[in-house]
């Protein structure tokens, strides 16, 4: 009989640890809601003791997102565990996830603890967590480089202390599939009490093997897989959950396992995560990449036209990719617009629809055909925004090979118009300087990049940039426009708004409700 594999999504914890991918609370809640729609089993919402912002976000997700288990991560320190419980306690189903390293290399150089001390800390942490909730997960960090006998001894003890899920992480992405399968099999066959709990794995992708290792673990007894959407995460990232899900689904003949995921939400979730984190999905990425279902060779195209399955092992519709030939333009009405958005899976409020339609009309004056990709960009970048402190009202640029690039920028803040001009070594530099003069914030531009959405000379320019004020925390901004300088100004103002929002005086839970 087909067996269930539980999916533990850590996009908001490990995924958010990707360099440059910081999310604000409103964005985290949006992603969590989408993950619940996708029907993952557990959402690891964050690391509550790490910062007040992390705590608030985990707490808001626990209260607001239903139909899914919400987990908070904590080390074995009691104050970590207490804080994690405070954050997740109001979830429909709350899980505490506590961890400690078990490898000698971590024990000696990082923790400076003996194996006995680690053993005791692990057992005490699980008992503490168990005093709060029945659902306790315990992870042995750097398990793949740990002594297997010691690892098994720790696992036995934490299971006896009440852990209900034991997770075996390949923290540094060192494992290879066959060896990792044997490793998991040894744990599964040797540890007393393992049959009473769920065995889990958490694989990293440093050698590009995270998904393969996760599958090898499942074949050897694991029943929970940890991973992220688009495979984002520390360094080279985590196992991409969409790939795990689609492997089970596509190769049912080989893997007798299933997940509860609604695969039709995969593409939408991938898009949302990519747009909010600013981490682009590579074109040839399995399952969700732009080219995942594109056929270039003439022989392949001919085959697919005659019969899709000649060269396609998955139906794109199964992951929620619906391509439509319907092209919207200047004369399209609100109804056609709403219908097309519905077809793309967007469910907008009346207010959002009004704003999106206004933006669409303005765009249709400049661009003849509005494609699905354009519509997705409009919704992701223009509509799903935190309440902006500053709004770009007016932009004038003079630039060229013989003059000093100068920008005049007018922003609106609380009904007041503020205008400044500045010179720079190029027009983008001049824009940033003019905005800084208005806001009084001295931001550093960390990077700036542009992409054309779709093809054609009238394509929308999609600018992604990152700024920082303290050199630590980075804010990503995006802007789209047919004019790339206008897109740059919008992106910069968007990043500044996020910075201002993040640094506003008090972040109260009641304030979150209004923004999401
Ligand atoms: Mn990790």
Task: Give your account of this protein's structure.
Mean pLDDT is 91; it is low at 507-516. This protein folds into 4 domains: 3-277, TIM Barrel; 293-319, no CATH class; 334-382, no CATH class; 391-502, Alpha-isopropylmalate synthase LeuA, regulatory domain (Double Stranded RNA Binding Domain, 2-Layer Sandwich), CATH 3.30.160.270. Helix 1 packs parallel to helix 2 and helix 1 runs antiparallel to helix 10 (266-277). 40% of the residues lie in helices and 20% in strands. Helix 3 (78-88) links the parallel strand 4 and strand 5. An 8-stranded parallel β-barrel has the order 2-3-4-5-6-7-8-9, surrounded by 7 helices. Strands 11-12-13 form a 3-stranded antiparallel β-sheet. It has a 3-stranded antiparallel β-sheet with strand order 14-15-16. With 516 residues, it is of the alpha/beta class. The site of manganese (II) ion has 5 residues, from loops.
Name the descriptors.
alpha/beta, TIM Barrel, binds manganese (II) ion, disordered C terminus, 8-stranded parallel β-barrel, globular, 3-stranded antiparallel β-sheet, 16 strands, 516 residues
Shape: globular
Largest sheet: 8 strands, parallel, barrel
Please give the CATH architecture of the largest domain: Alpha-Beta Barrel
Mean pLDDT: 91
Summed up, the helix count is 17
The total tally of domains equals: 4
Assigned CATH class of the largest domain: Alpha Beta
Provide the CATH superfamily of the largest domain.
Aldolase class I
What share of residues is helical? 40-55%
Please compute the radius of gyration using only Cα atoms: 25 Å
**β-sheet strand percentage:** 15-25%
Total beta strand runs: 16
Task: Show unreliable segments.
Answer: 507-516
Which strand order does the major sheet show?
Answer: 2-3-4-5-6-7-8-9
Bound molecules: manganese (II) ion
Q: What oligomeric state do these chains adopt?
A: single chain
Distance between the termini: 42 Å
């Amino acid at each position: 009989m087909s067996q269930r594999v539980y999916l533990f999504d850590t996009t908001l914890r490990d995924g958010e640890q990707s360099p440059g991918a910081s999310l604000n609370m409103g964005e985290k809640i949006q992603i969590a809601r989408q993950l619940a729609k996708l029907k993952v089993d557990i959402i690891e919402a964050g690391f509550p003791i790490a910062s007040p912002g992390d705590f608030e976000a985990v707490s808001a997700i626990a209260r607001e997102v239903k139909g899914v288990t919400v987990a908070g991560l904590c080390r074995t320190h009691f104050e970590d565990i207490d804080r994690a419980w405070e954050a997740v306690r109001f979830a429909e189903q709350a899980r505490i996830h506590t961890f400690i390293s078990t490898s000698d290399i971590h024990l000696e150089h990082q923790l400076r603890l003996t194996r006995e001390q680690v053993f005791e800390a692990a057992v005490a942490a699980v008992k503490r967590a168990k005093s709060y909730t029945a659902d306790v997960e315990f992870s042995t960090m750097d398990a793949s480089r740990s002594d297997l006998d010691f690892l098994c001894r720790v696992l036995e003890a934490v299971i006896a202390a009440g852990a209900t899920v034991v997770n075996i992480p390949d923290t540094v992405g060192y494992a290879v599939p066959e060896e990792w399968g044997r490793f998991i099999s040894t744990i599964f066959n040797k540890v007393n009490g393992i049959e009473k709990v769920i065995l889990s794995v958490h694989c990293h992708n440093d050698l590009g093997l995270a998904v393969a290792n996760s599958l090898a673990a499942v074949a050897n007894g694991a029943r929970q897989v940890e991973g992220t959407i688009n495979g984002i995460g520390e360094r080279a990232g985590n196992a991409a959950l969409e790939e795990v899900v689609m492997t089970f689904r596509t190769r049912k003949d080989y893997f007798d396992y299933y997940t509860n995921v609604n695969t039709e939400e995969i593409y939408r979730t991938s898009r949302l995560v990519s747009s909010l984190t600013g981490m682009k999905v590579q074109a040839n990425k399995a399952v969700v990449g732009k080219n995942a279902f594109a056929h270039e060779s003439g022989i392949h195209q001919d085959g697919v036209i005659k019969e899709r399955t000649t060269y396609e092992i998955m139906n794109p519709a199964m992951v929620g990719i619906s391509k439509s030939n319907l092209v919207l333009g200047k004369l399209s009405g609100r109804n056609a617009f709403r219908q097309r958005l519905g077809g793309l899976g967007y469910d907008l409020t009346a207010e959002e629809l009004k704003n999106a339609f206004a933006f669409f009309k303005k765009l249709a004056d400049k661009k003849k055909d509005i494609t699905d990709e354009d519509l997705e960009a409009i919704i992701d970048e223009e509509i799903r925004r935190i309440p902006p402190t500053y709004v770009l009202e007016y932009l004038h640029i003079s630039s060229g090979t013989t003059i000093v690039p100068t920008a005049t920028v007018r922003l609106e803040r609380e009904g007041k118009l503020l205008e400044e001009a500045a010179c720079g070594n190029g027009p983008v530099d001049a824009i940033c300087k003019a905005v800084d003069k208005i806001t009084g914030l001295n931001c550093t531009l960390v990077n700036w990049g542009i992409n054309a959405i779709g093809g054609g000379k009238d394509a929308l320019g999609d600018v992604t940039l990152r700024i920082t004020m303290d050199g630590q925390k980075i804010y990503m901004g995006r802007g789209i426009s047919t004019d790339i300088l206008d897109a740059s100004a919008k992106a910069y103002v968007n990043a500044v708004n996020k910075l201002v929002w993040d640094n506003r005086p008090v972040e109260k839970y009641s304030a979150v409700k209004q923004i999401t």
